[in-house]
Amino acid sequence: MAATRSAHTVWEGNLFKGNGVVTFDSSGILAEQPVTWAARTEEPGGKTSPEELIAAAHSSCFSMAFSNILDKAGTPPTKLVTSADVTFQPGEGITGIHLTVEGTVPGMDEAAFLAAAEEAKVGCPVSQALKATPITLTAKLA
């Protein structure tokens, strides 16, 4: 069964001096998060950016895909901690994403963990959607 999730943004003003508000319509959480060009290219200052939203989506999607791969291998994880760093270069766009994961997986060796992490990196739906962007990975067992 397909699932569709929705969010919307209201933007006022020009790119550099304007501002917007992102609202998460499907879940209703984090209503009206402020977003600005400065938050995207300088310090966040309590505001979010498209890149931070992509990082949140990618880290959570990767974690779900990785946990499923580990479980199917007969070594379900006790814990996975994943971060995603999305690099934005004005004039070029998103130039790279780096995933970092540390996992507690009883009964799994480092080589198998790294292979499963790479499989998750390539196969998670967000990675698939972003495959035009270079995605790198650092993975280690806790």
Automatic annotation (TrEMBL):
Pfam families: OsmC. Its EC number is 1.11.1.15. This is Peroxiredoxin OsmC. The lineage of its organism: Bacteria, Bacillati, Actinomycetota, Actinomycetes, Kitasatosporales. InterPro entries: KH_dom-like_a/b, OsmC/Ohr_fam, OsmC/Ohrsf, OsmC_Ohr_Peroxiredoxin, Peroxiredoxin_OsmC. GO terms for biological process: response to oxidative stress. Keywords: Oxidoreductase, Peroxidase. It is an enzyme of class 1 (oxidoreductase). GO terms for molecular function: peroxidase activity.
